[in-house]
Amino acid sequence: MTSATTTPNVPSAPNAPSAASADAPARRSGRGGRPSDRGTGPGAWLFLAPFGIFYLAFLLGPTIWMFVASFFNTSLVHRGLGSFAGLDNYVEMFSRADFWSSLWHTLQFTIYTVPPLVILAFVFAVLTNRLQRGQWFFRLAFFLPFILPSATISLIWVFIFTPATGLFASVQSLLGFTPGSGILADPKSAMVGVAIATVWWTIGFNFILYLAGLQDIPRELYEAAAVDGASTWQQIRHVTIPLLRRTTTLVILLQIIASLKIFDQVYLMTNGGPGISTQVSLGLITGTAFTDNRIGAASAASVLLFIIIVAIAVIREIVERVAARRDQEA
Predict the structure, then answer these.
(1) pLDDT of res. 16
(2) Which of 35, 78, 224, 308 has its CA 20 to 30 A from that of 198?
(3) Which residues have a Cβ under 8 Å from the Cβ of 188 and sit 6 or more positions away?
(4) What is d(CA 40, CA 58) in angstroms, rounded to the nearest whole number?
(5) Rounded Cα–Cα distance for residues 163 and 169 (Å)
(6) Is the pLDDT of residue 20 over 50?
(7) What is the pLDDT of residues 99-116, one digit of tens each?
(8) Which strand (E) or helix (H) includes residue 200?
(9) Cα angle value 285/288/294 (rounded, 5°)
(10) Cα(156)–Cα(319) distance, integer angstroms
């Protein structure tokens, strides 16, 4: 009689990797366990090449040239950089009254446009987001002016502000007021007219950003707040505004930078007038470079404006990080 031999059951080690799990890193990394070369081959560089060429040719290259030319007496009527000027171009700009005037007009325009473009865009986005039907119409109505070119917008508002025959003058006559010389013809109100046109033109972009942020907020938060007895204003104050803080800081930063770079509307609507009452920084830079043919002095003014814009962006980043750190600690 033969006796059957049994093999004892040997328990497997709990931490021993299986064959499938051992092969997983090799499969993920590519053939033979080497790191995958996807995204680092010549094909990826070919896709990046067009953008890289345009970036170097039209952004990075001119920026470097601007910094270099600001230290030279560069001119459009002479070849090359010209004679070395050192800091003379910067000293000249600091001593020119029209340079400080243009900076003030740029700041004035920023003050006139940033608050309404942030507040009104938020209010209109909140109201539109509460609609059950017809949101597409308001998206189109607010965003349509933004896709129009600045020349078209300027012509529309120049017609509206035309003295005696414009739409604004007609409304004044209907209300019993005597139309004056026109908003754009008065040094005290010309910048206000440009600001009104800009708000009407660009509010759609901020509106879309806020609307996208609102639609990412879960509805359950509003339902829970309503169950707790929160009113509509309390829901907006304690739910909507805190959750849209990052969107708001982004909108404010983008709007401040865009306002500091104002040029098109002013040039087309007032050409810096009446007098120099609406001459902004980019208007002064353009006139110095292409009217006075002084590229070096214009480059110095451009560098100063560039420093102001970068400083604002850095301050915004610092504030954002401090706020994020406080949220983590809370």
Answers:
(1) 47
(2) 308
(3) 277
(4) 26
(5) 6
(6) no
(7) 999 999 999 999 999 999
(8) helix 190-215
(9) 120
(10) 39
